[in-house]
Design brief:
The chain is α+β, with helices and mostly antiparallel strands. The protein has two domains: about 130 residues, 2-Layer Sandwich (Beta-Lactamase); about 220 residues, Histidine kinase-like ATPase, C-terminal domain (Heat Shock Protein 90). It contains eight helices and 13 strands. Strands 1, 2, 3, 4, 5 and 6 form a six-stranded mixed β-sheet that branches. Strands 8-10-11-13-12 form a five-stranded mixed β-sheet, with helices on one face. It has a two-stranded antiparallel sheet with strand order 7-9. A hairpin with a 2-residue loop joins β4 and β5. The longest helix is centred in the middle third of the chain and has 46 residues.
């Protein structure tokens, strides 16, 4: 294990380190023997807060019923394969709940705990495998941004239309004020111009929030109902007519800890697909519910539906049924990855010719 490029740490039942390979020493800048006999949260390592978080997760793992996860040291290659490609197809994205992210000196790692069996229960220990995915995360971020910009391209005509109407109104009311002598009418014109200007400001704010990158990775309380409402407004911008109707049933739901632009991208991608599937004409049903420990969101359209042979593929990267140049095939794959990032789940149901329904579930935090 000393020559394995991934970082491997072995712990006793008391969570003290009994083994750490050369990759760990290289990452932390300490001697291999320095960490032996210490807990990670007591070792005074660089980026100590990150190691403290890992230790808390290790403590939680040690209390789980994980007898079925016992592995042999000889099977380290099997353990390594559990570290998933973040852009892998949906069927390979069933990541164990112990697989978690850690950032050390601007480098990103996934880590996963596993049991190590040294041929007897008395020698049962816990292992930790860490694999660097800095480049993969950077690529994922670039693809996510590319999908956002692609989405803005399809919305651009609708955005211009949505901005022009209030802009012409502002110009008209401002010209009226110039020639008006009656103070009450001047006030009325000014108030109407202000309302139109605020509407334009809201559109711009929504767009800038949508394309904003999440460099700080700071999570804040997100109101899903508010995000969905904004997403509906944006997703329907590329429809000149008012032929897209919406039926909304919002429950009182708790907030979740998340990055707002990522949550907004989830809903914009799904809603935009629905609008495009209905070719700008039809009914959208959106509901949110608080179900015990979960929040459930349903988005249903009256489009043509998804052919049965495609249902299992809709979350796969680069899969699309759209014409060349009209879709990247990344939209729903990114949706799937973002939902999983926040410990949620997503499924799609569809009968060909009767529309599609996406059900998203997030845990109450």
């Amino acid at each position: 294990m000393k020559s394995v490029p991934d970082i491997i740490i072995i712990f006793k039942e008391d969570l003290k380190v009994v083994y750490a390979n050369k990759a760990f020493a290289k990452l932390t800048g300490v001697e291999e023997d320095y960490i032996i006999g210490k807990k990670l949260d007591q070792a005074e390592l660089p980026e100590q807060n990150q190691w403290n978080n890992l230790t808390r997760n290790l403590e939680a793992f040690s209390k789980m019923d994980i007898a079925s996860q016992v592995a042999s040291v000889r099977d380290i290659e099997t353990i390594q394969k559990k570290i998933k490609d973040p852009l892998a197809p949906s069927q390979t994205l069933k990541v164990d709940s112990s697989l978690t992210l850690i950032i050390l000196e601007n480098r990103t790692f996934y880590y996963q705990f596993f049991l190590v069996d040294f041929d007897s229960e008395e020698n049962l220990k816990i292992g930790c495998l860490m694999r660097e995915i800095t480049e993969q995360k950077a690529l994922e971020a670039q693809l996510t941004m590319a999908e956002k910009l692609s989405g803005l391209g399809t919305l651009s005509a609708g955005i211009a239309h949505e901005m022009n109407n209030p802009l012409f109104a502002v110009i008209g009311f401002t010209e009226a004020i110039i020639n008006e002598q009656d103070p009450s009418r001047i006030k009325s014109f000014a108030e109407k111009a202000l309302r139109r200007a605020k509407h334009m400001s809201t559109i711009i704010s929504n767009l800038t929030g949508y394309v904003r990158t999440n460099d700080s990775m700071e999570l804040i309380d997100v109101d899903l109902n508010k995000i969905i409402k904004t997403s509906i407004e944006m997703a329907t911008m590329d429809s000149y007519s008012n032929d897209i109707q919406t039926e909304i049933d919002f429950d009182q739901i708790p907030t979740i800890k998340a990055e707002p632009s990522e949550i907004q991208q989830i809903f914009i991608n799904i809603l935009r697909n629905a609008v495009q599937a209905m070719e700008g004409k039809g009914m959208l049903y959106i509901s949110t519910k608080h179900l015990l420990d979960n929040i459930q969101i349903e988005i249903r359209d009256k489009g043509p539906g998804i052919p049965p042979q495609y249902l299992a593929k809709v979350f796969d990267p680069f899969f699309t049924t759209k014409e060349q140049g009209k879709g990247t095939g990344l939209g729903l794959n990114i949706v799937h990855n973002l939902v999983k990032k926040y410990k949620g789940s997503i499924k799609v149901d569809s009968k060909f010719g009767e529309g599609a329904k996406f059900t998203i579930t997030f845990p109450v935090q």
